[in-house]
Amino acid sequence: MNQSLCAAFYSVLNILMAPHKMQDYKRLLQQAQAQGYSFYTLAQFAALVRGQHPIAEPFMILRHDIDSDCKTALRIAGIENALGLRASYYFRLTTWKVNLIKEIAALGHEIGYHYEEIATEAKRLHLKDPEAIMAKLPGIRASFSENLKRLRKISGLPLAGSASHGDFANIKLDLTNRPLLADNSFREQLGLDYEAYDEDLRAAYGLHVSDKAYPILFHPFHPQNLIAERRSFLLLTHPRWWKLNLRPNLMEACKHIWEQILW
Q1: Given this model, what pLDDT does residue 12 score?
Q2: Crossing angle between the packed helical segments 70-82 and 98-106, to the nearest 10 degrees
Q3: pLDDT score, position 6
Q4: Engineered SS bond to 40: which of 4, 44, 130, 220, CB 3.0-4.6 Å?
Q5: What confidence score (pLDDT) does residue 1 get?
Q6: Binned average pLDDT, 10 residues per bin, the chain of 263 residues
Q7: What stretch of H or E contains 123?
Q8: Hey, is 63 helix, strand or coil?
Q9: Are the beta carbons of 25 and 242 closer than 8 angstroms?
């Protein structure tokens, strides 16, 4: 099978099948608990790092990016809550279901904004030159500011942390959304305590492990192996990969294709 056919096959497979299982996530957390892990949200970890407080080893930071599947996010939050654990959940504008978000927050989890304004503006204006996009940064920051204020208002949550979303446009442009928050004075103005990819935080936790779709599953290591070795790491998961929820996954795939055509 050639490379294009392989890519098409796995794209369809990842819409129709979940590469991971919810019970496997629960067992993973239980395995870490049995190994004596400490668990942190990103807000908790950032406060320890920047307050120069000791961090218990081994540790695991639990982070979830909600790209399409909100219902599974709530189920994952329930699993963590039953185990006495707390995690960080980052929602996009397209996944901002306020009642569901409030349910997750009520379980003690951190809620943050999964922002993508640079990619959104690039697609809206059909810009494919990174320099042209960066020239629009003041306006993009104004959009981010308005979005964050609105999300805080409708949710009643502080939203003190944010995490950059990786859109297909970011990949093609070789430009992340993170330059949007590179200005510390802009962050202070908005009351943002951290961005998930801040260099001091990444240096402190060291190893960033993410779930992946078929056929990769995890990168760069399987978390089960890291737990067996009692290594500390941040675990990033995406609920859409952990339980089949066909409708939002199919809608996101169609939106992705349509945006590529229009861009």
Answers
A1: 79
A2: 10
A3: 74
A4: 44
A5: 57
A6: 69 83 97 98 98 96 96 97 98 97 98 98 95 97 98 98 96 96 97 98 98 95 98 97 88 88 89
A7: helix 117-124
A8: strand
A9: yes
Q: b or e along 86-114 (b: 16 or more beta carbons within 10 Å of the residue's beta carbon)?
A: bbbbbbbebbbbeebbeebbebebbbbbb
Task: Report pLDDT for 4.
Answer: 66
Q: What gap in Å lies between CA 137 and CA 180, rounded to an integer?
A: 7
Q: Which two tokens stand for residue 127?
A: 């810009």
Question: What are the b/e assignments for 193-223, b being 16+ CB within 10 Å?
Answer: bbbbebeebeebbeebbbbebeeeebeeeeb
Find tokens 């908790």 and name the residue.
44
List the chain domain ranges.
Answer: 111-199
Task: Measure Cα distances from 193 to 112, 161, 187, 212 in Å.
Answer: 11, 6, 7, 28
Q: Can you tell me the distance from the alpha carbon of 149 to that of 126, in angstroms, rounded to the nearest whole number?
A: 27
Angle, CA 242 vertex, CA 236 and CA 243 arms, to 5°:
150
Report pTM.
0.95
Instruction: Please provide residue 244's backbone torsions phi and psi, each rounded to the nearest 5 degrees.
Output: -65, 125
Contact (CB, 8 A) for 209 and 234: yes
The continuous run of DSSP H or E covering 59 comes out as strand 59-66
Strand, coil or helix: 222: coil
The per-residue pLDDT for 256 is 86
